[in-house]
Amino acid sequence: MSLSLRLQRIIERNPILIRYGPAATLTIIFILFTMTSVVLTEVYLSSNFKTQVNMDNATLSGFKVSGSPGLVLLADMFSIDLDGQTFSVHWSLVGACGHQYTGSSNDICIQNQFVNNVALYLNGNASVNWNLTTPIGTFDPLMVQNPPPVTYIPGRKQLPVEEYDTILPTDPFLPYTLQKQASTLYYPFDVYSAYVSLLAIDTDSNQSLPISGVIGYGSVIDWNGSSVSYPTTVGNETLYALALTLRRQRMVKAFAILLVVTNWVLSVTVLWMTVLVLFRAHVDDNLILTSAAVLFALPQIRATMPDSPPFGAFIDIAGYFMNVCLVSICTSILLFSQLQYHYQPVVKTPVEFTRSQESTFLIE
């Protein structure tokens, strides 16, 4: 006996299941979906801004900050413009490491404490002619020692007093590098990076200051931010470069892939229905008409992808375009088959009578 027949007999023998079964099933399914939604929401929220920036060893190690004597900077990528190919970045001085830069008696890293007047230069300004250019910002230790009243608000004491905003172009050298993943062509697996030269100057002595590390942080919804520092020794001087990177969160990628799979499931269903009709299997007329509904649903599903790019990404070539072509062909075949089946022309055939039938017809 099949499982479905057993379930049917069990339900028929239990009137309570007949009466309350649908409501109980609906309640159970609703509870399961609610729990799943809560869990996914918690995972999504925890993946956004999941680490608090501070100067303890675990945090510095997680952000790959060496902890060697020098300054610790924060580069917070708070916005990305995919059309303009730019990042918007908050720059702030988290603190410093080493007694000569913190003024403490040991070489530990201390948050929101430094003794040098710092001027920060980026990219073209971070060159041998830095004194002929304007820094993106300056950091004054007196502002930390005599902070403004806003720092006395509970929870804001350890926040940097000064921060500066810049707009950085994403890597403009795609024609040279052919890193196609740095474009919406690879959506949702596209990755964008901005490369920055850094120079910190002590404005009192006009000497460069070492940079212990830069914390690359991403506070853009649906994106994860990271950074990699590249200190390079040239002669007696250490030069600092930084790569800032934004990539889409896993849940965004999973949702986009789920929509691609959904389009393929709908397309294959219409294809299977078409094969059945071609082999003279009986398929309900209303079910056949749903193929047209699927054809118009495909672009709507494509448009609901998070931060959906213009048409032409690789998921369109492997998914959407193929889906539309397949469903269009199948829908045309299904409609023509229905026309042929329901609207067959009337065929007139001559009727031959025998002599007795003719005589009877004439008499009458």
Strand fraction band? 15-25%
Average pLDDT, rounded to a whole number, is 85
Cα radius of gyration in angstroms: 35 Å
Instruction: Extract low-pLDDT stretches.
Output: none
Q: SSE order in H/E notation?
A: HHHEEHEEEHEHEEEEEHHHH
**Number of helical stretches of at least 4 residues:** 10
Percent helix, as a range, is: 40-55%
Q: Helix- and strand-based class? A: alpha+beta
Outline? elongated
- The total strand number stands at 11
N-to-C span: 65 Å
What does it look like?
- With 364 residues, the protein is of the alpha+beta class.
- Helix content is 41%, strand content 24%.
- It has helices at residues 3-13, 15-47, 57-62, 99-102, 141-145, 174-177, 250-278, 285-303, 314-342, 355-363; strands at residues 70-81, 86-97, 109-111, 118-122, 137-139, 163-169, 191-202, 207-208, 211-218, 223-234, 237-248.
- Strands 4, 5, 7, 8, 10 and 11 form a 6-stranded antiparallel sheet that branches. Strands 1, 2, 3, 6 and 9 form a 5-stranded mixed sheet that branches.
- The two termini are 65 Å apart.
Quick structural gist:
This protein has 364 residues and is α+β, with helices and mostly antiparallel strands. The protein has 10 helices and 11 strands.
